[in-house]
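Deliverable D2.4 — example input (structure tokens):
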């Protein structure tokens, strides 16, 4: 996590923000003993578990995103993620990556799609062996808490970066919007696709196969899985950036749209209805074409033309 606050004396605010993130990590981590997610997963198919109201609220949001995305975003994909070695291990260096066979995947896929059932703050997972993985939404949700804590401490200008999510609290001290770089998904972490303005109160979230992957038998396998096949999503996209007001939704939908692909993402955006229509998008295709929805046009600075990218503003 990286939090930058513009304030005369930001130390107390920053410590409180860090504590807020640590509290949520202790609730939502898949690896920490006693976390809400750990307890919920251990009780799958057996009994309901009482969770923190923040956990219940996040699960509700995750369920809604799952349904609206037609399960492209699936919060109970954990058993499949584990089979690929993109699972419960905290560090990429200790993870054991492997390609599961078809029979194994089919068995594990039968544990997905059945969403957690909520009754107030009591949650149950219907099938034994099921497991929740909030890795595609939790960092976004945490950013919302950080905004709240910083604001309560009198901070009105800050940038919050949690993984691939960046939230602008207010503007830069001079009143102009914060500017963020979007990575070139083929740049090995060094090159940029574009720079853009991030308006006050907005979050941008980027999902891409280049963030975590492994190679086996001459193939590349990445960490965003299509719940339909159990295999890394092959939707023709290299990365998806979503700009939205709700950080948790930015996070969840960048992952969902990566699975759904450019055509479906643009159809949803152009329809003017539903959650995606209220967001702005940057879609990078495997043909090096970059779709940018009109809300991001002002302040956009393409940086990948020399690398072969073409840019198109999409309007409705
Ligand atoms: P993100 O970086 O936000 O796109 O999230 C990627 C992480 O979300 C992965 O490391 C998995 O833990 C999890 N994940 C992968 N595929 C999916 C999916 N289709 N739906 C929900 N979570 C997923
Ligand atoms: Mg995400």
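Example output (designed residues):
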């Amino acid at each position: 996590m990286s939090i930058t606050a513009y304030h005369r004396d930001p130390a107390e605010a920053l410590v409180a923000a860090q504590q807020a993130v640590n509290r949520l990590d202790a609730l939502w981590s898949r690896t920490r003993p006693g976390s809400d997610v750990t307890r919920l997963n251990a009780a799958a198919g057996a009994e309901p578990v009482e969770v923190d109201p923040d956990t219940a609220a996040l699960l509700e949001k995750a369920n809604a995103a799952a349904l609206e995305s037609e399960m492209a975003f699936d919060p109970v994909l954990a058993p499949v993620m584990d089979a690929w070695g993109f699972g419960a291990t905290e560090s990429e260096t200790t993870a054991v990556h492997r390609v599961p066979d078809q029979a194994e995947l089919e068995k594990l896929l039968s544990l997905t799609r059945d969403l957690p059932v909520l009754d107030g703050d009591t949650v149950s997972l219907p099938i034994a062996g099921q497991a929740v993985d909030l890795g595609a939404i939790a960092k976004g949700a945490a950013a919302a808490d950080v905004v709240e804590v910083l604001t309560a401490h009198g901070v009105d200008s800050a940038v919050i970066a949690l993984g691939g999510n960046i939230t602008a609290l207010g503007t830069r001290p001079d009143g102009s919007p914060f500017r963020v770089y979007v990575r070139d998904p083929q740049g090995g972490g060094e090159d940029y696709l574009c720079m853009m303005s991030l308006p006050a109160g907005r979050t941008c979230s980027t999902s891409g196969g280049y963030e975590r992957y492994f190679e086996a038998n001459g193939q590349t396998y990445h960490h965003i899985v299509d719940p339909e096949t159990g295999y890394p999503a092959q939707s023709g996209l290299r990365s998806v950036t979503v700009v939205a007001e709700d950080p948790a939704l930015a996070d969840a939908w960048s992952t969902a749209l990566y699975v759904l692909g450019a055509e479906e993402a643009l159809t949803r955006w152009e329809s003017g209805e539903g959650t995606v229509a209220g967001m702005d998008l940057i879609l990078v295709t495997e043909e090096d074409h970059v779709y940018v929805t009109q809300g991001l046009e002002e302040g956009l600075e393409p940086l990948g033309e020399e690398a072969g990218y073409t840019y198109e503003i999409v309007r409705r």
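The longest helix spans residues 11-28.
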